[in-house]
Amino acid sequence: MEYQPFDDSLRMERRHILIIGMGMTALGFIEKLFAYEDENTSTPKASITLVGEERWLPYNRVGLTQYFAHRSPKDLYLQPQAWFSSHIPGRLSVIMEDSVCQLDTLQQTARTKSGKMIAYDVCVFATGSRAAIPPYIRPDDLDTTQGLFVYRTIDDLERMMMFATQKRVKKVAVVGGGLLGLEAAKAISELESVPQVSIIERNKWARICNFCFWDLTTLTPLCLKILCRQLDEEGGRMVLEQVRAFGIEVLCEVQVESITVSDKGEPVVTGLQLDNLQHFSCDMIVFAIGIRPRDEVAKTSGIEVDSRGGIVVGDDLRTSAQNVYGIGECASWHGKSYGFIAPCIEMADVLAYNLTKEPADPLRSMTTPDTSTKLKLVGVNVASFGDYLADKKDSDTIDIPGHTRKGGLTPVRALTYHDPFGPVYKKYIFSGDGKYLLGGMMVGDVNDYAKLLAIVKKRKPLDIAPSQLIIGIPRKEDEFDGDDLDVGAQVCSCYNVSKGAIIESIVAGCKSIGEVKARTKAGTGCGGCIPLATSIFNSAMKKAGHTVANFLCPHFQKSRQDLFMIANIKRLTTFKDIMKEAGTSAESIGCEICKPAIASILSSLHNDFIMDPSHHQNQDTNDKYLANIQRNGTYSVVPRVPAGEITPAKLQALGAIAQKYGLYTKITGGQRIDLFGASKQDLPDIWEELGRAGFESGHAYGKALRTVKSCVGTTWCRYGVGDSVGLAVELEERYKGIRAPHKFKGGVSGCVRECAEAQAKDFGVIATNKGWNVYVGGNGGAKPRHADLLATDAVKLIDRFIMLYIRSADRLQRTARWIESLGEEGQNGLEYLRRVIVDDSLGICRELDEAMEALVGTYFDEWAEVVRSPEKRALFRQFTNTKEAKQGSELIEERGQRRPPEWPEDASPLKFDLKDVSGGHWEWRQVGKLEDLRPTNKGSTSMVINYSDTQIAVFRLANGTLYATQQLCPHRRAFVLSDGLLGDTSDGTPYVSCPLHKRNFSLVGGNCMSDDDYKIMAFEIKEEDGNLYIKLPEPSEIDAVLGTSKWMLRKAREEANEKLPSNHIEIVAPINGSGPVTEASADFCLTANRNLDW
Question: Where is the composition biased (Basic and acidic residues) (predicted)?
């Protein structure tokens, strides 16, 4: 192949780049190109056309197996849909469900299957690879034979799941024991409709390799030739043991000769014919034996391809055609194609740099990629690094730094560690003299992966004995802070992100791991590096001076535990009292962090009614209105159903109430019924009817006891040994209404079969023949943890456990994390807890018992309190100046119920300003009376007034200062701001915190304090002679900007989106020289805020 020089002629004028393929490499190239273009402002920004044959935007193929669980393509997207149209006009155009079928390299044009003609200045092949199929089946067989599949795309998985469900598949055979084969088998085995899965593998052990390619001439996997296996026989066996532990059958050293199909009508899979003359019966076959480069378009266009497959590229990634390049799995560089993401992204980076560099700068060349990798396979951590198979190579081919062979010294030696109980397997390969680490492999414990890879790359002698690298106590995954890693050590192998890049992102202003991921791409590929990246982030934040103090917030330089003790000992009963006693400024009104935390402390100590004036405005929105706010500003209502036991009469009552108020109903995971879509003004009426039917508040809105779940126990079950329902009812009745640092739940199982999942709750009780066993700290969440066996004396121990938790946990700390924090360095938390509440090591058990008895004795039904009080009912009015009600969104019918439409994906950030009101005759207009605000010096108050079609929120601080803003939150277009918490900054600027996603808006100027992309209108307001006046324009003028009918969510958009063909995506700008294009949808490529919402 003869290469032309890299073409610099087009670098100083705007080029049109055509990218063929829409996978991870293609998107990686675009991101790299944009980044380099943004850095080099002297280079004109390219115009890009991206063409892909799938109906999905670029998605994470590494995480494809996760699709079996969530079945949402958007959850796999590498960039949200709105990202593709968030660039300047003409910079990026996307064509989906079409593919380039011919390239004219002389005219520099491409033709697609649909007939489009696209001219280009630069063409990049990023077509990836297709699933390999064995020689005994034809490609057409995949379309014509029922039950025959490959494992490569989302569509492959959807067809697979549909077939398994509809055909009642009894047994599935996965051919191939490599990475994809094992992952496919594990995922398929978790489908409820599939009772049995078997893996058929030709080798002796699991062929763990990064997507091995198949030789097109011999139809054999290239991994057998270039040694791309990542585990030896021992490591492979350990992985297979874990696979078998999942109930998956594994047949090794078995060669498939053909498939067998039914001879009646349409071909249907019946099994596999094996080389030992045996027949393996199955209903479904999935081939996961490797991949082949997609080089067919290049080949038919006269571009050189390798005899074994792949588009031949040089060190600059250019093909044999001028201005045509190849990157990713479709490219053959030095006779090799790479089937994993890291080398593909490296290729993308090299090409993007070369296309944007200054003419005087040298070209970058592709270098031999590092094939080290770390991944999680069927629940088992697996890693390989460096020359991990050096002990299997000829000595002449092994690269040993600074090595000159002396005498008969063995060039390499392997040090292994095998713990079958872990299970853990480590094999590290050293130079014969033990001075250099060359590579290795790990199964189970892979925490040292980044450190060891860095050592290999440094190519320097070890300063410790080899044994010290492999022998020791394995650390927990989140205990390693990466401090002993070099700055250049690779953390994310998918996107080649170093430790230094993570640290630099913190210097650049990133304050969360989410911001680091968005800036560096670390953790956005396979996700395996997230624990290490998070540890490095936390450590670097501390070193940069961003101390993670245990202070509650800027208003209180004390922890929650300190404030609890101060309030308890000094008998403080209000937020203002605690602010004066312990706050940084006695006159501060607090914030959205400290107000709910202190409100919870006061409830735990005194349990006053949270809707009393001194407490009401300290509550987060859910507590403030005793219901859970939903995304359209309505609320959900969850009545208490102790232990899930409910009479038919009560079920009928719930149904009647839901029908009367048009509520969406759903059974919860806590054995209750949730009623969604209640308007705030309807809540007291709904509670009144629920009360007449015998229900009371379920406290689903509070950081309080939610439910005590139970199985049916001895009441009905033939296996039951304890009355689980009776005890669950007793516990729920005892602890209902008790507020804590976070929500907490219980469970009671009537036998060791554990149907109520008691060990997964904050506290759980399981019946045995000898009595009850108590478990604590097993709540789920971001770090789920099973509860630990504590003792058998149930109620008293649970009393003490809950009360100690209330007194000593941090704000929003679940019980599992709290237990881990007890004792020395969190290692003996349960033992410490046992000593305190069982052995009374601190002598506080009596006090804990008495405190719980006192708290239990203060219970009252909060809903009933509102129903009985006309004054409290008035707090739920939508508007204070009219009885008219307005919806915040329309509703759509779905599965026989009504719900709000989805939030529009084209929701670009909104900045409202008084100048937006055209013309306008602004004057003081009376909107209500001061008494409507229920003024009090005990706390702030708020209300909403309706001005024509515009909703205006009015706030009054305890000191009497008045503020008025729009009611509409510009982030999610919900009319909810008046329901948010009020706070102030360190300089005393008051703000309101939106109850949906906690964006803070200044009450003075309307600016968003946490996101400059948003702003609200703030109006002048005054009080005269008991009347309230706001300076406003004519109704029609402000309605045109803030009107409810203008901004409410509408079902028309939802229905239109459902009717859109999947291939409709906006072509952002016409392509110069291109032929006809299809109609494009204006609703598909959408502009939205690129920052994560939560």
Answer: 887-902
